[in-house]
Amino acid sequence: MAGQHILYAMPHSLYSGRARSYLIKNRIPFAERSTGHESFKAEVLPKSELPTIPTLVTPDGDVIRDGAAIIEHFEAANGRPCRPLGPRQQVISALFDVIGTDGLLRPAMHYRWNFPEDNLEFVRHHFLHSQRDVPQREEKTEAMMNRMRHAAMIFGVTERSQKIVEDLYLQYLDALNTHFNCFPYLLGWRPCIGDFGLLGPMHAHLGRDPYPARLMQRRAPAVYRWVERMNREDQDAPEFFDAASDFVAEDDVPETLVQVLKILAEDFVPETRAAAALINSWLNERQPAAGSRAVGRLAEALGTADFNVRGEQITALAQPHRFYLLQRVHDAFADFSQEKRDQVRSLLEVCGMEQVLTTTLVRRMARCNNLEVWE
Q1: What does the H/E/C string look like for the chain?
Q2: What is the pLDDT of residue 170?
Q3: Which residues contact 334 (CB under 8 A, 6 or more apart)?
Q4: CA angle, corner 369, sides to 366 and 370, nearest 5?
């Protein structure tokens, strides 16, 4: 695809990092603009339907909103270079995409907003400079930051839950560090779709904000290197003296990655099940019309769901977007032969993730005119 794309994004945006990294790694020419740029409201927003980022404008003027849709646009056009061929790796890649995009919001929000002595000036600088220099700039900045602080709480970060959020994150970080000491990417020697999804929270919030970035540098230097690596065009793996160039052979999923998934499952699985139950109840009661909008702006949801993690109750928004992405896991699984399904199911059982295969909504979602809608 010739010509330069325009990516509307921000350095401190969780969701922007996923699309930006994909463009970088696949050497797709692009220029990045803030949503404060005059062209965003005048030219892009009427086509993107929602004022969310990332949003891409192609050289032909087409507008694509949301990181998943941006990546799918290029994957479909270029032979899916970032999707592994083996069934086990394919499902694990798609699962990490969901976990990164929706399953790590609590630690991302906690480590950004609950350490103001370290983070506040850094974060405020980015919120301030993401918009144009107008008389209301300071006031708008404070309003935006307060809205995101509130989002942290409704995603389940409270004084009561902070210890569990930190304990789980640190154990996950240690396990992920062990994995990245063995491989430069999740599934071997090149990034898969799951790497891009996981980068979202691990870059903007956890790998850039001062407090969590120092924590990552000290405690998990191999994870920090992966964050750097995901923002470079080349493989960037000089520390691996016997580096290969493809995914791990024979559809293998390294044991080091299985250990990461076991930790993530403690939080991700109960929240997914609780959110599905609430959304299904809402769907059965409301019966939204086919084609009606299913996903809105950040922190818009149908209600909150309660679930238990290590004996502690957490209450968080139940967001349909998690299940829009999880459909890809279910669809991939459904297309496999019975033998391959058994292989995938056995792996997910070991990881503690087997219940994601059967946790579904009673209505599917599709994408139409830059919106996720109910079928």
Answers
A1: CCCCEEEECCCCCHHHHHHHHHHHHCCCCEEEECCCCHHHHHHHHHHHCCCCCCEEECCCCCEEECHHHHHHHHHHHCCCCCCCCCHHHHHHHHHHHHHHHHHCHHHHHHHHHCCHHHHHHHHHHHHHCCCCCCCCHHHHHHHHHHHHHHHHHHCCCCCCCHHHHHHHHHHHHHHHHHHHCCCCECCECCCCHHHHHHHHHHHHCCCCCHHHHHHHHHHCHHHHHHHHHCCCCCCCCCCCCCCCCCECHHHCCCHHHHHHHHHHHHHHHHHHHHHHHHHHHHHHHHCCCCCCECCCCCCCCCCEEEEEECCEEEEEECCCHHHHHHHHHHHHHHHCCHHHHHHHHHHHHHHCCHHHHCCCCCCCEEEECCEEEEC
A2: 98
A3: none
A4: 80
Q: Where are the domains of the chain?
A: 5-77
Which range, of 32-41, 173-182, 283-292, 311-320, averages the lowest pLDDT? 32-41
Alpha carbons 325 and 310: distance in angstroms, whole number: 26
Q: Quick check: pTM over 0.90?
A: yes
**Residue 83: what pLDDT?**
97
Number of Cβ atoms within 10 Å of the Cβ of 356:
24
Mean pLDDT, rounded, for 47-69: 93
Q: Which of 86, 75, 98 is nearest to 1 (CA)?
A: 75
Per-residue pLDDT averaged across 349-373, rounded? Answer: 96
pLDDT of residue 331: 97
- Which is the CATH superfamily of the domain at 5-77? Glutaredoxin (3.40.30.10)
